[in-house]
Design a protein that fits this description.
With 187 residues, the protein is an alpha+beta fold. The chain has five helices and four strands. Strand 1 (6-15) and strand 2 form a beta hairpin. The longest helix has 69 residues, at 110-178. The protein is elongated, with a radius of gyration of 37 Å.
């Protein structure tokens, strides 16, 4: 990062059911050698929050959500930090407990397990889409044949109706010409 030490003014609001709804003014100091994880960890420390139980929503002066990188890139007079409780805490807690047990036994990082799960999920979706496309390609000739068959049936039905109307017209035309049609249809 190509900047000197930066002091960022924060207005912290706790919406994490702690009962304290007032705004707390604090400052965050960012050093040039800090990476994303270090900045994130320091931000949680300043906000007195835990990444396992809470989430931070960073907003600029216009109340627009922004990513952490904007803290470094843009100079605002202050940033608003909303501290909120994660809504699915019990599920995440059980996942973290399961992953920490796996870390002990397998030596695997929790983050990589979640990333692997996401990658597997995307791969399964792609495989499902590929199989559906293959099935569609196999059915395309049948669809063309069915379309042609439907059109032939429709044309045949229309021809039968036209032939019936022609016969009726041929039967009634001589009576119409002779003027006796009205007498045949009267009660």
């Amino acid at each position: 990062m190509d900047f000197s030490t930066r002091t960022i003014n924060l207005k912290i609001k706790h919406f994490d059911y702690s009962g304290d709804l007032r705004t707390i003014d604090k400052t965050l100091i960012i050093y040039p050698n800090m990476d994303y994880k270090a900045i994130n960890r320091e931000l949680f420390n300043v906000c007195e929050a835990s990444p396992e139980k809470q989430v931070l929503k960073i907003r600029n002066g216009q109340n627009v959500l922004i990513p952490i990188s904007f803290l470094i890139e843009n100079e605002e007079p202050y940033y608003v930090i909303d501290v909120a409780t994660i809504s699915c805490f019990s599920e995440l807690h059980s996942i973290n407990r399961y992953n920490s047990v796996n870390q002990l036994f397998l030596g695997v990082n929790t983050t990589s397990l979640l990333q692997d799960a996401y990658v597997d999920s995307v791969c399964n979706k792609v495989k499902t889409l590929e199989s559906r496309i293959a099935q569609t390609e196999l059915l395309m000739p049948q669809l063309e044949w069915r379309k042609q068959s439907y059109m032939e049936d429709t044309v045949s039905a229309l021809l039968n109706k036209v032939q019936f109307l022609n016969r009726r017209f041929d039967e009634l035309y001589p009576k119409y010409k002779a003027g006796t049609l009205g007498r045949d249809l009267s009660p």
